[in-house]
Amino acid sequence: MQSIQRVDREAISPVEPVTRQTFDEVLVPTYAPSTMLPVRAKGLDLWDQQGRQYLDFTAGIGVTSLGHGHPAVVEALRAQADTLWHVGNGYTNEPVLQLGRALTAATFAERAFFCNSGAEANEAAFKLARKYAHGKFGPHKSRIVSCVNSFHGRTLFTVSVGGQSKYTEGFEPLPPELQHIPFNDIDAARAAITDDVCAVVVEPVQGEGGVLPASPEYLKALRELCDAKGALLIFDEVQCGMGRTGKLFAYMGYGVTPDILTSAKALGNGYPVGAMLTTTEIAAAFSVGSHGTTYGGNPLAAAVALRVLQTINTSVFLSRVEQAAQHLVGKLNAIVRDYPQVFSLVRGSGLMLGMVLADAWRGKAKDITKAAEAEGLMLLIAGPDVVRLLPALVVSDAQIDEGVTRLRRALDAVLAANK
Ligand code: PLP
User: Fold this and answer.
1) Whole-structure pTM over 0.85, yes or no?
2) Domain that holds residue 300
3) Theoretical Cys-Cys bridge with 120: which of 46, 115, 143, 317, CB 3.0 to 4.6 Å?
């Protein structure tokens, strides 16, 4: 039989040009992307179809923390692509074992489960917590407590645990035994965490909910309440982990250790990967066949994530994140002082920052990010009242200065237009 390995380039039909309009023609309308269509990027610089340059202060929503096309990460992906792409879970592979070893050595965890996204990491965490409590205490211990305005992903389970009803409307019936409590409210936590709770899940810094850090007292109280009631404490570090706050994981800055931690986003710097980390004792609630996913621990993803982790988890890298954050916060506070009609304050942790809109501009965060984009600066919102900044952690002081200059120009333009 003849081999079909040789690529017959003539048989591959040419790809038709596409524009932003194509999105509306062929994709399910779950997003409303900008009219600007990015085609290429390096570091924090990004170019659109027209060749216009932008400074990317979004990192693809907290993903490309080492910047676009980081040479060490590209090299790891290329080397792995030449070696082994995929084997399936009937086999393990070297990159996933190395990644598991590196993540457990770097954190409280002793065991890792790999998947493809933040939602899947949380789905695994919630299932594990249920299974653990079911086995140890019985089926009555099944309630999961989470916070109002939290975000944990879009599978039916994770979106239901998330505390934003706008994302669950129309998808009922939702999974039962879930309760939402106000964030940073210790009394509400005390009232909610009773004997039938199997897990409490919290983002140490709420991202989508408005860039709100948990208070240290709050996380300490959750830890104590979980210990007292035999519930597991889950930290969702999908957005705030992997160096974003200046620590490898945010829990390290709080000095409060969870039972389960979830990571994704920046773990792969753009290559889809998620991880759930936990202890040996808790992991033992899962056995062969309890949970799984075809791509979990895929060699390509694992090789990339290992290189990302090795690059971020050094004291030099992490202290530079803190320095860059200080520089950026100083500049943003100056903007708040100069534009008090637009912004009321800056909040966040490390390079995960939110500029909270003043009363007169409430609900208009998108107007500001659009104006910024017109000036060549990509920003995010975190709800309608907060402009969110998640630049790559490798951002230089000069790039911060340039980004802030562009933001000031955008604010002048938006104020002139609203006169
Ligand atoms: N958890 C948090 C805190 C997030 O910010 C997100 C995404 O924004 C998720 C979970 C879901 O991650 P993914 O979109 O990779 O499923």
Assistant:
1) yes
2) 72-312
3) 115
